[in-house]
Write a structure and sequence with these properties.
CATH topology of the largest domain: Rossmann fold
Shape: elongated
Distance between the termini: 24 Å
CATH class of the largest domain: Alpha Beta
Strand content: 15-25%
Structural class: alpha/beta
Largest sheet: 5 strands, parallel
Strand order of the largest sheet: 2-1-3-4-5
Number of helices: 8
Number of domains: 2
Order of helices and strands: EHEHEHEHEHEEEHEHHEEE
CATH architecture of the largest domain: 3-Layer(aba) Sandwich
Number of strands: 12
């Protein structure tokens, strides 16, 4: 899967820990198994992990304390708690201690793997959003790196249409339809002005080189990757 995504499991039950480690390693992850907080701390002296899987009932420092400590030290880290405690108040305490997921025991290796995959996809999606310009549908904002600007409703709708279109290309009539306008020569000329202004807005968030290109006698094509969030 992704050896760059590291997982650390803290589980004092040796046989169970080994089952979890073997299952996740079989899916291509790099996994470190620890029996207690001290083992985990020693590991972090020389390495790091993107995800912690913590049994709550541990000898010495318990999982909730470890989770809270590591969440404060590494805000971006993901945390899954494993526990036999299933009361609502225990789950609330787990989430307050920094949990992304709270799995009641007994948990199978397959269920744990599914939970890990869910977090892995979310982390990777977050990285992709940061790497590429993003169109925020709810707020109609376009963001890239340190820049953010607001789009008009029609601008957001047309940009979303280009992002989702095959080859990122829309014909004139498709764009005008998104804008609730008839296909006339006058509107096609107005569309050229509209696209010029939209290009300028994209450049304001440091998306350079006229990212929306005119396609001769066809329409317009978006030539940069923008993600929808």
């Amino acid at each position: 899967m992704d050896a760059s995504f590291r997982i650390a499991i803290v589980e004092d039950h040796k046989a169970l820990r080994e089952v979890f480690v073997d299952c996740l390693e079989a899916n291509g992850f790099e996994v470190f198994g620890a029996a207690c907080a001290e083992d985990l701390d020693d590991f972090f002296v020389r390495e790091h992990a993107d995800l912690l899987i913590l049994d709550i009932n541990l000898p010495g420092e318990d999982g909730l304390s470890i989770g809270k400590r590591y969440r404060n030290a590494y805000p971006a880290i993901s945390i899954i708690f494993l526990t036999v405690r299933s009361d609502a108040k225990d789950k609330i305490l787990g989430y307050e201690s920094g949990a992304d997921l709270y799995l009641p025991k007994p948990v199978s290796a397959e269920e744990l793997n599914a939970a890990v995959m869910s977090i892995y996809r979310r982390v990777k999606d977050s990285v992709n959003v940061k790497a590429h310009p993003a169109l925020h549908i709810q707020t109609r904002e376009l963001s890239h790196q340190r820049f953010t600007l607001s789009l008009a409703p029609q601008e957001s709708k047309v940009l979303k249409g280009l992002i989702e279109a095959l080859d990122n290309t829309l014909e004139y009539w498709q764009i005008l339809e998104l804008m609730d306008k008839e296909v006339t020569e006058t509107n096609k000329k107005s569309l050229a002005v509209f696209m010029y202004r939209l290009n300028k807005k994209l450049e304001e968030v440091d998306i350079k080189n006229s990212p929306i290109k005119s396609v001769w006698k066809t329409g317009y094509q978006l030539n940069v990757k923008i993600v929808i969030v």
